[in-house]
Design brief:
Order of helices and strands: HEEHEEEHE
Strand content: 25-35%
Number of strands: 6
Shape: flat
Largest sheet: 3 strands, antiparallel
């Protein structure tokens, strides 16, 4: 069966929207905490779906103060210390982690979670 022009046009229009998946990280992190709770999701179809999934994962671990701190289309990371936090995103996990650590700014900052699509 030969595809019709309208079918080809529909595929070309839909393709750019289906290629990108979105991820998000939600964290329950308060100043002074040494082990914050978190949840994250990758492969979501939209920012809203990624955010909802990350919040669900964060709360499923018993965390009550979860908030979405970053969403990303490639890689995302969250760094923290007792007094600081930072988020980062970029084309690679290494870039996302470096940005999160830079934004966190403290010598004791460590990556809590980082992932890529």
């Amino acid at each position: 069966m030969k595809p019709t022009r309208s079918l080809l046009a529909a595929l070309l229009i839909a393709l750019p929207f289906s290629v990108f998946a979105i991820g998000a990280i939600a964290v329950d992190d308060e100043e002074g905490q040494t082990d914050p709770g978190y949840g994250y999701v990758t492969g979501a179809a939209s920012k809203q779906a990624a955010s909802a999934g990350a919040m669900k994962e964060c709360r499923a671990s018993g965390n009550k103060g979860c908030k979405v701190v970053v969403w990303f289309e490639s890689c995302g990371a969250y760094a923290h210390s007792r007094d600081h936090y930072g988020i980062g995103y970029g084309k690679t996990k290494k870039v996302a982690e470096a940005k999160a650590l830079e934004e966190c700014g403290g010598k004791s900052c460590k990556i809590l979670v980082a992932d890529c699509e």
